Amino acid sequence: MTDLPTDPILDEIRTALGTRIPAHAGFDGWGLAAVDRAAADVGLDADVARLAFPGGAVDLIDAWFASVDAGLSARLSPEALAAMKVRERIGALVMARIAQVAPHRDALRRALSILAMPQNAATGARLGWRAADTMWRLAGDTATDYNHYTKRAILAGVYAATLLVLLDDESEDLTETRAFLNRRIDGIMRFEKAKAGLVARRAHLPSLSRFVGRLRYPAV
């Protein structure tokens, strides 16, 4: 049973079942059978549970990934994250997500296959962006310029690649996945450092527009 209210709204149903559906989706697939079994886990009528997922498999996957997003703050407190460097925060947040999906690798494999279908590509990109945005916000990122978008795009790619490594990782304590993630984050840090240096150098370059302007309107 769960602490669902007597007359839950659809959002409450999606939240309650989002963490439970993957335990069944690995065997039953991302369909009504998994919904029915998850509903039985919490003592909810199956017909009512089905109403919460009108979009079928994509809605089910969305609910699972939303529960993973929500679970990050429970695993890593603001105080714990504040004590880390930015690189460490991102690594810890990605691994906190990995820890939540790792027990359901068969369900994850099926989910990624579904999101990879052409008709679901936009949804897959949206869920990847949402995951990256959640992690950066928890890491304390407040950027509002183009860095806001580049950071999330890069992290979404890193997270997606790390999930693929996880699927075939049989090492103890996910050593291979951790090593892969660390290498990718190191690459990002080198890129960010190089980009910062380039921006600093460009700031000291003479302005071409000012030079042309002076040719046309010389100082008197």
Helix content: over 70%
- Based on the structure given, which CATH architecture of the largest domain is correct? Orthogonal Bundle
- Mean pLDDT comes to 89
How large is the count of helical segments? 12
CATH superfamily of the largest domain: Tetracycline Repressor, domain 2
Distance between the termini: 84 Å
Largest sheet: none
Please tell me how large the radius of gyration is. 22 Å
Which H/E pattern describes the elements? Answer: HHHHHHHHHHHH
What structural class do you assign from the helix and strand content?
Answer: mainly alpha
What is the assembly state of the chains in this entry? single chain
Under CATH, the topology of the largest domain is which? Tetracycline Repressor, domain 2
Quickly count the domains. Answer: 2
Number of strands: 0
Just give the CATH class of the largest domain: Mainly Alpha
% residues in beta strands: under 5%
- Ranges where pLDDT stays below 50 over 5 or more residues in a row are none
Question: Overall 3D geometry?
Answer: globular
How would you describe this protein?
The chain has about 220 residues and is an all-alpha fold. It folds into two domains: about 1-55, no CATH class; about 55-205, Tetracycline Repressor, domain 2, CATH 1.10.357. The chain has twelve helices and no strands. The protein has helices at about 10-20, 20-30, 30-40, 45-50, 55-75, 80, 85-100, 105-115, 120-140, 145-165, 175-205, 210-215. The model has no long low-confidence stretch (mean pLDDT about 90).
Secondary structure elements and their pairing?
Elements: H1 10-18, H2 21-28, H3 32-41, H4 46-51, H5 57-75, H6 78-82, H7 86-101, H8 105-115, H9 121-138, H10 146-167, H11 175-203, H12 208-216
Helix pairs in contact: 1-5, 2-3, 2-8, 5-7, 5-9, 7-11, 9-10, 10-11
